[in-house]
Amino acid sequence: MRHNCSGRRLSRTSSHRLALMRNMVTSLFEHERIETTEAKAKELRMEAEKMITLAKKGDLHARRQALAFIRDKDVVHKLFGEIKDRYLDRNGGYTKIAKLRYRHGDAALISVIELIGRKEEDKTKKKKGKAQEAMEKVKGLISKDKALKSEEAKAE
To answer: What are phi and psi of 24, to 5 degrees?
Structure first.
């Protein structure tokens, strides 16, 4: 029985799990939005919110605790400089998890985890696929063809 054993194992050893969480927290604060499986996102949320709480304290001890976990000075500087200012009046709930799709290979639920209140210009726009671009090209050609025919009809 797993009494008082919190957290997910994620089919990894404890050292691998710790390294995974460190890398994911670093990526989340660097890019402010990442895609991962739902189980990893839920574990990541706990660690990321702890780091934001440390940043809100803002003292040297909190910064050193964050550096012990994150190990990237630029990301910690961004966390203590830019990111903490967004959440000074908020008590928790700094991240949002949204379900996206099921992964093709193993049908794992892929989710996106992002920081709430991130800048609008950093938000990525939906990229168009090749099929959508081809359809837009065809629609443009059709509209040009109709315009030419209407001009010919007017000329006659």
So the answer is: -70, -40
